[in-house]
Automatic annotation (TrEMBL):
Stated name of the protein: DoxX family protein
Membrane topology label: Multi-pass membrane protein
GO cellular component: membrane
Transmembrane segment boundaries: 7-28, 48-66, 73-90, 96-115
Length: 124
């Protein structure tokens, strides 16, 4: 189980690092969005949704996962981001759900793996 945890942690960390670094450095052209996903994206932009903040958090979580430091904290920070990713793809773009599902399932696996460390959060 320890080796599986390390593999999942490093893979998810590398994916988060790649996504955030490529966003900030504009390594790839932005794909043309269509339909409901385009409307959703325009609505987020109009509302002042801070994509830079989300990508910065992804970068920090990716660094935590790859380095092995603050992994438990990074799991909790990443959870709402991964839920948002999976829900957007489930509702608006199910054909491209692959990477979102990988991040979400990896996040859930790591939370399960470190569950004993989170038990204190739920004590009154």
């Amino acid at each position: 189980m320890k080796i599986a945890t390390i593999i999942v942690r490093v893979l998810i960390g590398a994916l988060l690092l790649f996504a955030s670094v490529s966003f900030f450095l504009k390594l790839f052209p932005t794909p043309e969005l269509t339909g409901d996903l385009k409307t959703f994206n325009e609505g987020m932009a109009a509302s002042g949704y801070l994509m830079n903040l989300v990508k910065s958090l992804e970068l920090l979580c990716g660094l935590a996962f790859v380095s092995g430091f603050f992994v438990r904290l990074a799991n909790l920070v990443l959870l709402p981001i991964s839920v948002n990713i999976i829900m957007v793809h489930l509702c608006l773009d199910p054909a491209n759900i692959g990477m979102g599902a990988l991040v979400f399932l990896g996040n859930i696996f790591l939370i399960y793996r470190y569950w004993n460390d989170y038990k204190a959060i739920f004590k009154p």
